[in-house]
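Review form for a predicted model. The reviewer records the input and the model, then writes brief findings.
Reviewer: anonymous (R2)
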Amino acid sequence: MPGSSISLGQVFGSGLSALDSTMNSFQTVYGMFEEDRNRRREVAFKADSYKNDAVIAQYEADYVRAMAAIKAKEIVRSFKRQNGAMRVSMAASGMVMSDGSAVDALMDRASEAGRAREMALHEGAMQAWRHENQSSQAHAERSFLISQSKPGFMTRYQQARTVWGEVGKVRDTWTNLWDMAQAG
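Model under review:
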């Protein structure tokens, strides 16, 4: 460009500067959206963790309930075996089973077995309730986390503003370079 006040080196240097500015703007916008994606991934991971905790707690509740039922049945079986052994022993000793202390002893044992059975079922129900409560709490934590992870209007507005600002910088940089090239 003979007679021009701007050299080709200056235009080339300004072009590199414009390219660098464009890349910086791209990195700013890309970084902002990548940060948002990473935050969403983290929230999704935590939400899945809460979901798994809820499922595990529900399985534990079901397991505790089943084990309490098995324990209650075993208490009844054990009572029946012991009661049968007591009847045989009393009958072998010549006791009459129609009334008196023999019947009282058997009734007391039946009452104890009934209380032990009810206690086993109650303890199982309470443990199951605790696990179900943990499950409900994990579901609630997951729902809250998911609701908090959704970007609101202001977040989207800030993102749009950042993108628009970076686009303006790129436009101004390349317009200045174009004007410089035209002047030269």
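Findings: The longest helix spans residues 8-92.
Further findings: The two ends are 7 Å apart (CA to CA).
Recommendation: see findings above.
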